[in-house]
Design a protein that fits this description.
Layout (H helix, E strand, L loop, with lengths): L7 H7 L1 H12 L4 H10 L2 H4 L7 H9 L4
Helix pairs in contact: 1-2
Length: 67
């Protein structure tokens, strides 16, 4: 989340159930290697939408004021 400009602590405080659901989706993900590579390379923001099952939620959170 940090790589995409979303403050995890703030999300945990304001939307704890959303964060919990995102963690569950992430834990079941089949694209962890791609995600890890993108995180290590600093390219997550450019690529996550192509494989991340949380992309819709991340995009909605990014559009919220204060994010």
């Amino acid at each position: 989340l940090g790589a995409l400009g979303i403050d995890r602590a703030d999300l945990a405080r304001t939307e704890p159930m959303v964060l919990r659901d995102m963690e569950r989706v992430c834990a079941l993900c089949h694209d962890k290697r791609q995600c890890d590579r993108d995180l290590a390379a600093g390219t997550s923001a450019e690529h996550y939408e192509g494989y991340c099952l949380n992309a819709t939620t991340i995009n909605a959170l990014a559009r919220q004021p204060g994010q």
